[in-house]
Amino acid sequence: MSDALETGRATAGGPPGPTPDGGPVLEIEDLVVEHRKERSREVFRAVDGVSLTIGVGETVGVVGESGSGKTTLAMAATGLGVTGQGTIRLLGHDLRALSRRELRGLRPEVQVVFQDPHGSLDPRQSVRSGLSELRTLQPQRTAWVDDRVLLDQVRLAPEILERYPHQLSGGQAQRVCIARALIMRPRLIVADEPTSGLDVSVQADVLDLLRESQRRSGASMLFISHDLAVVRSVCQRVAVMLRGRVVESGPSAQVFENPQHEYTQKLLSAMPGARWRARI
Ligand SMILES: Nc1ncnc2c1ncn2[C@@H]1O[C@H](COP(=O)(O)OP(=O)(O)OP(=O)(O)O)[C@@H](O)[C@H]1O
Ligand SMILES: [Mg+2]
């Protein structure tokens, strides 16, 4: 296999076509991820036999209480360091079968938007120099858009380019993080609680921006949240996690209207009904 793995993108600027093998963007089968407990030989199984598929342009949500393994699952899905047993196929490529070099080549295809935008940005870099660094790393991939147009796409004024992270509000910083993800033209965006760290007043805007960006770019999205109303409004399909396992999954409407598993029912009944119905 050469360095340049096939990813199925038709043109640098255009929407992504089918994956090279015509299959899903991400396919996880029977994934088990264990964390070693601190100062101990014991391990803790954070993800316990999870299978999950995300098709081209599809948004799949993962919900579950704190500690249920959502972030561990997401990080494994990106192939970014977290390893485990089971199969992870990204754009048809089995991540375990790839050389380090091939993995590096595939990495820009997955971009992560984290909960804490300020923690994701280098405090010593202005927005412009941060983008410029990405352009130097991936000149061809990033050439489809200039900085101003990119910022406009995330609804930020061009003046923001000269700012440093500490000069940005939480909402602005998260928009910059989304721009940094979009510039790479990823095939998969992993958004891990992307609005939970933000002021309530800007959460809906950032969510709306993510939804619009995902649609415009044609990327697929793995969307993690403990907020069921948000997941319902963003995701076509949803997986409910409990103690490392997916206990229920299916189309969002089905899971939310007619939850089968006791835990999903409990999660839904804990939600103030008016709040989640109002947001649909
Ligand atoms: N690096 C690590 N070392 C040891 N244990 C870890 C590590 N990362 C996560 N864990 C443990 O694995 C479990 C799952 O953690 P994870 O962060 O995936 O949960 P989560 O569903 O994302 O939770 P939250 O909603 O709070 O973000 C937790 O019990 C956590 O304490
Ligand atoms: Mg988490």
Cα end-to-end separation = 46 Å
CATH architecture of the domain at 116-218: 3-Layer(aba) Sandwich
Secondary-structure-based class equals alpha/beta
Low-confidence stretches: none
Describe the structure.
By secondary structure, the chain is α/β, with parallel strands linked by helices. The chain has a domain at 116-218: Rossmann fold, CATH 3.40.50.300. Helix content is 36%, strand content 22%. The strands form two sheets. Strands 6-7-8-3-9-10 form a six-stranded mixed sheet, sandwiched between helices. A four-stranded antiparallel sheet has the order 2-1-4-5, covered by helices on one side. A hairpin with a 6-residue loop joins strand 1 and strand 2 (43-54). The protein is globular and about 50 Å long.
Task: Compose a concise summary of this entry.
The chain is an alpha/beta fold. Helices cover 36% and strands 22% of the residues. It has twelve helices and ten strands.
